[in-house]
Design brief:
The protein is built from four helices and no strands. By secondary structure, the chain is an all-alpha fold.
Length: about 60
């Protein structure tokens, strides 16, 4: 059986395939972002202690 499609139908079909592929890629990207580990600290502990233990602070004392 041979199907005859007009040029418009072929273009529509191609656009549908491309849009489905893009939707799948977007879904994969969003899944990867969800799997990211949340941050443990807003400020690293060694940066918080720089005021007390930093080299410049110790030298000035």
């Amino acid at each position: 059986m041979v199907l005859k499609m007009s040029a418009t139908e072929i273009v529509r079909f191609g656009i549908e395939i491309v849009s489905l592929a893009l939707a799948e890629e977007c879904r994969k990207i969003l899944e990867r972002k969800k799997k990211r580990r949340p941050r443990r600290w807003w400020v690293k502990p060694w940066i918080q202690r720089r005021e007390q233990l930093g080299a410049s602070t110790q030298l000035l004392v």
